[in-house]
Write a structure and sequence with these properties.
homotrimer, 506 residues, mainly alpha
Amino acid sequence: MRKILFAILILFIFSSISFGAKPKLSRESEDCISCHTSIHPGIVADWQKSLHSKVTPALALKKDELSRKISVKKVPDELANIVVGCAECHIINSFKHKDSFEHAGYKVHTVITPDDCAVCHQEEADQYSKNMMSYAYMNLNNNLIYHNLIDSINGVYSFEDMKIAHNPPDDNSNADSCYFCHGTKVEVIGMETRETSEGEMEFPILSGWPNQGVGRVNPDGTIGSCTSCHTRHQFSIEMARKPYTCAECHKGPDVPAYKVYMVSKHGNIYSSFGSKWNYKDVPWIVGKDFSAPTCATCHISLVATEERDIVIKRSHQMNDRISWRIFGLIYAHPHPKSPNTTIIVNKNGLPLPTELTGGFAKEYLIDEREQEKRRNEMKKLCLSCHSYQWVEKHYERFENTIKTTNQMTLTATKILVDAWQKGAAKGLEQNDSIFNEAIEKKWVEQWLFYANSTRFSSAMAGADYGAFAFGRWYMSKGIQEMFEMLQLKLNEKKQNEIIMKRGGKR
Amino acid sequence: MRKILFAILILFIFSSISFGAKPKLSRESEDCISCHTSIHPGIVADWQKSLHSKVTPALALKKDELSRKISVKKVPDELANIVVGCAECHIINSFKHKDSFEHAGYKVHTVITPDDCAVCHQEEADQYSKNMMSYAYMNLNNNLIYHNLIDSINGVYSFEDMKIAHNPPDDNSNADSCYFCHGTKVEVIGMETRETSEGEMEFPILSGWPNQGVGRVNPDGTIGSCTSCHTRHQFSIEMARKPYTCAECHKGPDVPAYKVYMVSKHGNIYSSFGSKWNYKDVPWIVGKDFSAPTCATCHISLVATEERDIVIKRSHQMNDRISWRIFGLIYAHPHPKSPNTTIIVNKNGLPLPTELTGGFAKEYLIDEREQEKRRNEMKKLCLSCHSYQWVEKHYERFENTIKTTNQMTLTATKILVDAWQKGAAKGLEQNDSIFNEAIEKKWVEQWLFYANSTRFSSAMAGADYGAFAFGRWYMSKGIQEMFEMLQLKLNEKKQNEIIMKRGGKR
Amino acid sequence: MRKILFAILILFIFSSISFGAKPKLSRESEDCISCHTSIHPGIVADWQKSLHSKVTPALALKKDELSRKISVKKVPDELANIVVGCAECHIINSFKHKDSFEHAGYKVHTVITPDDCAVCHQEEADQYSKNMMSYAYMNLNNNLIYHNLIDSINGVYSFEDMKIAHNPPDDNSNADSCYFCHGTKVEVIGMETRETSEGEMEFPILSGWPNQGVGRVNPDGTIGSCTSCHTRHQFSIEMARKPYTCAECHKGPDVPAYKVYMVSKHGNIYSSFGSKWNYKDVPWIVGKDFSAPTCATCHISLVATEERDIVIKRSHQMNDRISWRIFGLIYAHPHPKSPNTTIIVNKNGLPLPTELTGGFAKEYLIDEREQEKRRNEMKKLCLSCHSYQWVEKHYERFENTIKTTNQMTLTATKILVDAWQKGAAKGLEQNDSIFNEAIEKKWVEQWLFYANSTRFSSAMAGADYGAFAFGRWYMSKGIQEMFEMLQLKLNEKKQNEIIMKRGGKR
């Protein structure tokens, strides 16, 4: 009897310790909160739910290394024993920030960047800088071909006298479309004075704001945005580990990872049981904490066994487990060596990792040995729940899908090239956009939508998506349609020629 | 020690009070339940989970005004101290109901209407009657152009002798399609006698039944259906606050609010953390009860701070926070003044809020000042979690998207008008449906699917949906395709003319 | 006071009993686990969460008959008092398995089949063998027309000299596409020796592996795969009862059951409240355990009332509650009598349950009386929560939708037949595939995507999906497009003929 009562007592005392003790907040952060609690109650409440508001770096460093979320060995002394409040991110690095401004007696900046986070999370910032995502804005914006594709999608078309004119997109349209995920360039473009609840105040005006894209170019010169995945102001590892975070940018038909996952056995297990899993602990224990992988499990997280043997190491350079880049440009190809793909030039002088008619721009891409290495890294994880043969044969199918989808893209491209050569459409040689005519747009869908979707479906075993939903059915149909479009255009052209020849003029 | 035991004791006593005390049920409702528990166990069990089965109006009125769900100041004395059972909805207003009938000694009615609910929820019923949704059936059914669109979608086509004939849809098809969400007209069309477990009984036969559409025309002369969102028989505020309720009718490509939400940062936060939120309390406390808005938060709910300062008032006239109507007919336009849009006639005499070639039927639409007012109302909520500049620039982008998507719709419309004028298709001037030819159907998709989707994606910051999934990509592609369709038709026509001229006959 | 403390004590004791007692594991299974815990920690951890690891058959048989998950009356004595571990499935039936092999002193097999599960779940295995799903591989693979459709989807197309060549798909592509869900043929095609952590070992090489498709042909001669729905190694009834399991194969546009469910009122209730439901108990109590049906509720589960009156019996022959087969081939039709549909030959000698131009291959399909019987079986469940009239009128609409969608398919087919007859396309009479030309692929979408989607939407009251998302809009648009394609082809042909006739040659 007494033991039970004692146990209850301990429970009460324990809970009062863990929840009752006030975390130590810096004076600066206290100042922030004193106003902002009423101005932006949602932000403050959100931060209060975060680990940042509860744990000091010094405490975080007391955990054994395998369990740590903090990756520096030491933080500056003045930060060690206070929790991570507003000021610790929005003030300390302000001297590096072009967007910093005088505000209520402090120099603060709005845009938090990988460098700000690196004070405690240096390793992750370093890895992420080698992740292609950090170059997502630059790789898109500084590539003439991709840029032309953007223009053809986001621009405003007009119609007059049987002609279509394409007006280039404005910045707001781009920021609302491609650059929303890829990131914008955020710069201070002026200052403005506003009446606020605390009187008149001056604020910098930011271009490309708001934005949380993965390759955002920041006012402190860094690239990337941690809040893309570690959503402010909880910065929760739980959230980053759930598939909805990746889905923000990986759901559309060009990169349908989320949709494929959700129709896969893995996604089914997650949907059925995921609400009971542990998303908070580091390392993440396979079998105990979760029964099936989420996106993060395979691509980022530190996974270990119950005996704390490491299955796979954490990495924020996500492609180091990925052997192929399966959203082809225009074919699936070995992963680029450098995250900066603007340096790539193929044999025909185009800024593409593959030739238009197949073949890889090899010198810019990882070789087969590196592919093998990355594949093996990923397989370690698969083997936690699958037999050797299961894993090998899964990869065999996946590699086969890469091959066949590339063949299908080649076929579509050959039809298009034929159309260009026979005057049924205008392409590169005619110095025309390769994205503006109907047959060209159809061709884009062949590789960007259908071949990609088929490959994602194969890579992540979500076959239902790759069959009828948005994969093989449309891929094979599209080729036939492109072919009949070409036939029709050529027949139309020939008839016009015959009629003109016979009639003198039409 | 004693204190702890005392606390446990209090807990036990408290729980036995709140869960143990039997709610007082009317004799009439007891009668209903005595049979229906075995006939429809699911209905009774569902109701037992509802607040209606547990709280009397008198108790509900004891709550402070801000926390109340009941909105009348007083209910009829005979209802005050009994819970809301079967009879309280299905009997008390029966004298107003044309669908009421003798049943087991009572006059009961099947179809519960806003007037029935207004006995306790008058304010919500009043607001909803000013909400365009309440006119969803009438606005669709009584507008010749919309009606023609419905016919072209739900009708049965036949093919004979190289001609397509369109047969108008039957009522069942319409009820299963457009009117499922918009609402049907429910009328008593006869009586039938049926053998039941309680012997022979007589029941009214209802047209348009079952239906829970938002603009249902009810047998008591009212319009609307509270159960569209407050699903019978739990009538749970929790359910109405979750996005799945809105998704029942706002998921398709014409109004993809749910899909956009789910791919937005808000949707991600909801999906990741929403299972831990409090959906039951009134007012709904930002930051404490929830960390990101659901549909209801922005469009309906009473939101307050922890200090119980009102952030935004509850409204069942949902458009009073909405400045633009973004699912265009055929362009996005300022919100109509009246929920009854059948009164609208544009300059060309068409029952549309915009001209076919751009421009608004201004006198029927709210002016810029009212737009500004509604925009500001919504911004109050945004500012709970976002900075002033964030919110302003978000709206700037959104307004820009309205402008550019309207331009894109104009371009598509110009192509179609050209087709009509040049005889490549038949339109209004030829006294033909504007929805029956392939190029016209393509045109419908331009504004109804792609421009709408792009605008939803912009309004709710779900860019992934508005880029490749179902927005700008298809919008720009569609214009090019319409243009090439027109070119082809004109060339075909010209060739035929030349051939006929030259040959005398084909 | 004492009573409370006593209750707490009882609780403690009880929980130590139920969680603390070690289940008895066979020596063979202990052997398996001793190595595989470290080799495949995820598998073992998953199994440990299963009921199999906790309950012996003898204990399972002690439950009252209505609550049992085990369906045999008696298991072999040697299995009765041990839990179901590795060996109990992977060893005991090995003598029947062509894939069995010597492994660490045991004869084991990898592929678990319905016969293995039947040791305890005989009734379910028997029912499933009458379920069309068990024939999913054979019905697809052994039907010339379906096979030709597969080839046209999964094959690799090439383009040379203005000709498209179709190369038949390889086995990996098929296994990654159609056969992923339908099942593959798993056979031992050789042996391989591998270096493992336990030294060199020999393993059988399996064709068509991995696969968990519903109609898998197994190395022991059986067909089907229980793990399609009862995912290894938890084999959880909870998971099978949740809609994500069915979604693995029923989400695409050909059978969009999941998408329709999720947009229906039922799906909304599930999404809003489902996390609070009880998915574990047998029988499943309507109203108490759940408030709205999932897929399993309507199609498989044993449902009862709180008084334990059976509402509907469990069945793994899922079509015994289904009167129509609504994913038409090519029309919706009464359900086939035999799960083996390869025996069906229509009047025109085609292996199809309907004629190309409407009409049923009646002798192979259930008659109206059987349809009525199955419909009534399903209605029992509907009536748990819906009134008689609600249910009747729902079915009236559904039957009407079957009629109108079949009419729409007939219209599309007539256009295609006209195209074949007039030489605008090549079909059966020209001894050509009916799936390779653009107009034929459009025709396939008419019945396989749009008519099916409309019917699913009608059957399960998810109207939003059947209107604009993927139903009536596309169905009516597609007919018009097919018609204009035909017009264009015929005009093109006629012009070519005239030009050729006049000019002697083109």
